[in-house]
Protein 1
Amino acid sequence: MAQPLLRAQVDIDAPPAKVWALVSDLRLMPQWSPQCRLMKQFGPLRPGTRTVNLNRRNFLFWPTTSRITEVVSERKLAFRVNENNTVWSFELEPTATGTRLTETRHAENGVKPVSNVMVNVALGGVPSFEGELVDGMNESLSRIKAAAER
């Protein structure tokens, strides 16, 4: 069974506008995420915009689609992955020295059963895959931090 919330956070010595420019440009997602190889949006960045994504783990590749659910400039970007019903988000909070960036994966209503079966069969089981996702979130945030602080 999927955890309802996966979360990672980092403090970045850069203003929210600079961090927002990095996380809101979905073409850059493969530079941040160790799992994402492509995120292509169809239309402007706003609720309802669809994306096609390609993910990779070792030699296994799989496509997903998503829909942007929330866009609040310099504050929050969220999208729902259609195949498993999870919502991924980036939230930005101004701090005294820059920006606190939090990445989450919400699965309040669980993950679609077919997704759990695929994770169990092809990706080593839900608990270990979710551990990899959190590691990947931390890696993504550290890459965004490095780029924003350059």
Protein 2
Amino acid sequence: MAGRFAPNQPTRTTVRGGHTPVPAPTGVPSQASGSSARRWTPPGPLDLGLILGPLRRGPGDPTFRTTPDGSVWRATRTPEGPGTLRVALRPGAAEAEAEAWGPGAQWLLGRLPELLGAQDAPDLFEPRHRLVAASQRRAPGLRLTRTGLVLESLIPSILEQKVTTEEAYRAWRLLVRKFGVPAPGPAGGAHRMHVMPDPSTWRMIPSWEWHRAGVDNKRASTILRAVRVARRLEEAAAMEPQQAQERMELIPGIGPWTSAETVQRSNGAPDAVTVGDLHLPGIVGYALAGDRDADDEAMLELLAPYAGQRHRAARLILLGGRTPPRRKPKMPRFDIATI
């Protein structure tokens, strides 16, 4: 299956001379001078789409791209500055190949294994339902990513509070393109990728620009409170997921839904099940018990056999595709930018 491979040798990490450039993929400008590269052999099969897909905020996300050659491009702000990372699976080899540009290049390459799920332990998961077991068999390359970065997942999660994903994706896209910086390396030109703004830039965004992006004052104010304590929030990436969530939830406007959505990505949290979601309880209830009206309490009861791995169980349930027929109307779209 495209995007997957099964290694036949023990785990090892290889840095070819530490800074050896690899050829740019087909169709990408060759302005890759100053790049660094790394190759890594994982302990099991990988599916880049399943692993890195949760980092993408909609099809027009300026921080995330996929290319026809199977590469995943990611533009982000690291503790060492902006960086662009390209990750691909080497054809015919049990190896992941990465190339990075910008001040954050070495930081990104150093954490490549964690990004691709090296700290995840899918073998500890024991399916308790037939649907979950079937989904796990069909997705052997699913591993939980760990970015080690909090704000890049927290801010878009705040934007997704109480609105449609379409509205949230639009806001993220507009704000990052207008106030972020072009991604280092070829991605900033060929793919028009951008790195999200730094905390000081988020704080300087005028109120009318939030309005034009369709972000109400409540969500904008929550983001502003978060970026004022950016350093303390980024420390949460090294904490246990529950402690990390507790730190985030000290900020008014950040609750269990937002903190769970964040630590699933920043901390690779296998048990951080999302509560307070409009659709997830009904999907889990319908898939495991035929109950399309399940609430959070019922969902947590159904997921109790997966304690310690409830987020992974929910991911596998979603991949199983057994969702209840739509009965409730979609959340109405309300664009404050038109007022």
